[in-house]
Amino acid sequence: MKTPQLRPKERRKIESFIKKFKSARQNKMELVEKVFSTIKNEFRSTLHLGGGMKATDLLKKDHKKVKSLIKKLKSASSDKMALVARIEEEIKIHSRCEEQIFYAEMKKIDSERVAEATEEHHQVDVILAELKEMTGGEGEVFDAKVTLLEENLEHHIEEEEGEMFPEAEKKLKGQLENLGSEIKYLKAELKVKGRKAA
Predict the structure, then answer these.
(1) What is the pLDDT of residues 115-125, one digit of tens each?
(2) Are residues 102 and 21 in the same domain?
(3) Most exposed of 31, 63, 77, 119 (fewest Cβ within 10 Å)?
(4) In this structure, is residue 2 part of a structural domain?
């Protein structure tokens, strides 16, 4: 597949952003966002040429990452709240991408299952909000809340990977790489916005 090239107008825009970035003392994240947005818009149509990771594989990768972070949290003796914040960021970005892109397509196939999965996201958000109100030094109370979070996530992941994803593999077969590309781009955009807000 031929690598797509930027049009001269878009190339000039990006070169201008890069010059401003090098000389800027502040607002660098705003410039990064503009460059990202220009590139994303220019290559939006090339997202649908395939060759990327399937949406289901990307989402499974996220599941694995969150499970690993929870494992770290359960064995951590310090910096527990930093891990809670990291888990929250990963889950929020994952949920937003999943709901906005993957669930939007799955809703056409099984709206009941999507409604249930969306509610499970909400339940996880509630537990995370309660964890964020803690200090990490609450001992058994904190540990019990982390276990509740882990159990809710395990249940949600089992249902998705055991039921929803196989259904998607059958019924959205030709679209999964395109959806994966869209998830990848939205995830990158949300991470840039998250860093800017921090």
Answers:
(1) 999 999 999 99
(2) no
(3) 77
(4) no
